[in-house]
Amino acid sequence: MGRKILLEHIDKPGIDQIESYIKYGGYRSVSKALKEMTPDEVTEEVKKSGLRGRGGAGFATGLKWSFLDKSTDKPRYLLCNADESEPGTFKDRLLMEKIPHLLIEGMITSSYALGCNTSYIYIRGEYMFILRILQKAIAEAYAKGFLGKNILGSGFNLDLYVHPGAGAYICGEETALIESLEGKRGNPRIKPPFPAVSGLWNCPTIVNNVESIAAVVSIVNEGGDEYAKTGIGKSTGTKLISASGNINKPGVYEIEMGVPVEEFIYSDEYCGGIKNGLELKACVPGGSSVPILPKHHLLYESNGNPRLMSYESLSEGGFATGSMLGSGGFIVYDEKQCIVRNTWNFARFYHHESCGQCSPCREGTGWMERVLHNIEYGHGKMEDIDLLWDIQRKIEGNTICPLGDAAAWPVAAAIRHFRHEFEYHVKYRNRVFDEDHVYQPEMKAQLV
Amino acid sequence: MTQTEQITFSQKSMEEMDRIILQYPPDKKKSALLPVLHIVQQENGNWLSTEVMDKIAKILDIKPIEVYEVASFYSMYNLEPVGKIVIEVCHTGPCMICGAEKIIAHIENKLNIKVGETTEDKMFTLKTVECLGACGYAPMFQIGEQYYENLTIEQVDNILDSLRKEKEAIN
Ligand SMILES: Cc1cc2nc3c(=O)[nH]c(=O)nc-3n(C[C@H](O)[C@H](O)[C@H](O)COP(=O)(O)O)c2cc1C
Ligand code: SF4
Ligand code: FES
């Protein structure tokens, strides 16, 4: 069994309530930080820990914190990104539902490090039932003196609020999140200026994912060096992986960075193998935005070594043979799944979620969706496959925010690794799937 | 009196709105817009009429267009009347490969409506939505605030039948 840092106490009775949470060591990091450490010392520990942002991009958290503009007398804000809308991702939800005080504790300690006296948790509107859990936990923390004025007699003040979104994937992008929190449409801003200089209400702002902020608790308690002992290379600590798709045991797992992908899929401790005795076909290892990999690239790096669950190993080989750890949304496909249909489904998602500000994204995502729909439903032409390739290339890198790239990469990877399936759809004109969209193996055999 | 002036919200909602407005700096009342729209939508039959939105603009000291442009951007706000029970089935990739399409087809047959439509008795509206963060518990749908996960056809029947009975009992 791997080391558990975030979910160690998740099964303890009443852990969602403050008494029980404190009994199992909760809120120690608040008294330690506020009474024994300066804010910069807290940031220093986060730097030492090597913690990388758990929201998808994997940017070093301590380094990001050091960019916060402290030269003005404007208020500073810490925003927790609990938008969790990347398809395949459902890890933050577990943390907030089951052990809400861990996030609140992390928010207090992190706000202290950053010098914020007001902080917000931006949670997707569909998680309204979790917003209520968080609000209850926040009220408990106020009552115990961990929030409010002069926390634990330290002179530090903090108010913490939960703010709901209302159904828009784009609001997970940090500048769209800020716009949304200001009561506007979720249109991403052009960077620079970066939020650390000019964010919420034009004040210096840090945006961090739920899991990143929760990790700060253990980093402060045990020290950054201790945290960095878990994991592998520049992927320190543990990571929550939400596993879905055609596996025996879907769910959220806290893994030590560095577990082999093969072990993660087949071991009973984790996914428990492919459902219904079928074969593994492909996997999207880090949320819908990252490249899909066929089985052999998923399990092995380009040098033949086993691929591991870490930032470096999952991206080894670049986009030619690798992918990304992303948000940890691990989607597994069995041999009966249709790559064309899945690619069309994701393209529809990105088209639906494009905010519409930049033409390559607004028009390109819609175009890709239509072309993929045609191919999937037997109306495609061979040239359409090259057309798709061309469209995705013209989106990538040409947009205000990374949603454009996120829409382009899954299409590129599907064509790169599964071009034969697209050709098959075109060649045979009718679908190779029964009415449940399940692959017909007999028909697949004609393919090769 | 204009129609907007006739709109009133319950005491409870007004108090809730006042509490929310205090979460933001006094000159940033507009930030309360999203949470406030959730409250009034729930109170007004699960959709936002122009009159309701105009009233919110007054409460938050912003222009009506600032409310409309937000309400039309976010998928959780309904700008048309909907049924008493809105079924939102996730149809994104991970749910799709775990049987979401069968669940959708079953509900369409059972209620005799297509996705996006409302039953004649105004009881049910069927919608498809994008990933709700329940991919490991697929197939799933959301009704109101509640998630229903790991659905089977039988469970769908039971859930919808009992919700219908509940609503009919209230009337
Ligand atoms: C389209 C899009 C959607 C995103 N959605 C999320 C999300 O739901 N949750 C999240 O934490 N980060 C999301 N991000 C990343 C955020 O922009 C930001 O990098 C992150 O919240 C920073 O936190 P971290 O450094 O702790 O990971 C998204 C980015 C993009 C471009
Ligand atoms: S890339 Fe797409 S989502 Fe991002 S700002 Fe441009 S149009 Fe909006
Ligand atoms: S894909 Fe349906 S909940 Fe994520």
Defining key terms:
heterodimer; A: 448 residues; alpha/beta; Rossmann fold; Ubiquitin-like (UB roll); de novo design (two linked rop proteins); 3 domains; 4-stranded parallel beta sheet; 19 helices; 11 strands; disordered C terminus; B: 171 residues; alpha+beta; Arc Repressor Mutant, subunit A; Glutaredoxin; 2 domains; 4-stranded mixed beta sheet; 8 helices; binds flavin mononucleotide; binds iron/sulfur cluster; binds FE2/S2 (inorganic) cluster
The helix/strand series of chain A, from N terminus to C terminus, equals HHHHEHHEHEHEHHEEEEHEEHHHEHHHHH
Question: How far do the termini of chain B sit from each other?
Answer: 31 Å
Principal-axes geometry of chain B comes out as globular
CATH architecture of the largest domain in chain A: 3-Layer(aba) Sandwich
Structure in words:
The complex is a heterodimer of chains A (448) and B (171). Chain A is built from 19 helices and 11 strands. In chain A, the strands form 3 sheets. A 5-stranded mixed β-sheet of chain A has the order 8-7-11-9-10. A 4-stranded parallel β-sheet of chain A has the order 3-2-1-4, with helices on both faces. A two-stranded antiparallel sheet of chain A has the order 5-6. In chain A, α15 (339-353) runs antiparallel to α18, α16 (359-376) packs parallel to α18 and α17 runs antiparallel to α18. Chain A is α/β, with parallel strands linked by helices. Helices cover 44% and strands 12% of the residues of chain A. The relative contact order of chain A is 0.11. Chain A has 3 domains: 18-229, NADH-ubiquinone oxidoreductase 51kDa subunit (Rossmann fold); 240-334, Ubiquitin-like (UB roll) (Roll); 339-447, de novo design (two linked rop proteins), CATH 1.20.1440. Chain A is globular and about 75 Å long. Chain B is of the alpha+beta class and 171 residues long. Chain B has 2 domains: 3-73, Orthogonal Bundle (Arc Repressor Mutant, subunit A); 85-170, Glutaredoxin (3-Layer(aba) Sandwich). In chain B, α2 (11-21) runs antiparallel to α3. The mean pLDDT of chain B is 95. Chains A and B meet through β3, β7, β11 and α15 of A and α3, α5 and α6 of B.
